[in-house]
Design goal:
It is built from 5 helices and 2 strands; from the N terminus they run αααααββ. By secondary structure, the chain is mainly alpha-helical.
Length: 142
């Protein structure tokens, strides 16, 4: 199944751990693990953009794009069309950032980072709850 292969090969954070849950979809715990890895990667991407470090921008964007494969699988299993759209657009933005940075076009990478952050924020508004310590969790009703 193509979907399973994408999840199995597209996930850096989960490594060789089996993907479990409904129909092979990531569990809530796996989703939360991946989400906690995206945040520092995005922060590092922004820091690298400010420091004009195209190589690290590309690396961080690639990491984010891979992590978003698991996020997309999570929402696909839940048939949450809006979340699927957010994550697909976010993954496309991450890939465009990576490509732009590889070509040393940091202005385009910066535009992509804004688009990526916007998609993350839109999805978080609907599906994530910010805790007092600044971390996020899945809203209980989602």
């Amino acid at each position: 199944m193509v979907f399973t292969a994408l999840v199995a090969f597209g996930v850096g954070a989960l490594g060789s751990r089996p993907v479990t849950g409904q129909a092979g979809a990531p569990t809530v715990e796996e989703h939360e693990t991946v989400m906690t890895e995206i945040r520092p990667a995005f922060r590092a991407l922004r820091t690298s953009l400010e420091g004009q470090d195209a190589e690290d921008v590309a690396k961080q964007a690639g990491t984010i794009a891979k992590l978003l494969v698991t996020v997309e699988a999570f929402w696909t299993a839940r048939k949450a069309e809006d979340a699927i759209g957010f994550v697909q657009t976010a993954r496309e933005a991450a890939s465009s950032i990576e490509t732009a940075a590889q070509g040393k076009d940091l202005a385009a990478a910066g535009d992509g980072a804004k688009a990526l952050g916007g998609q993350c924020g839109s999805c978080h508004d609907v599906y994530r709850e910010e805790l007092p310590d600044g971390t996020y969790v899945l809203k209980e009703d989602k």
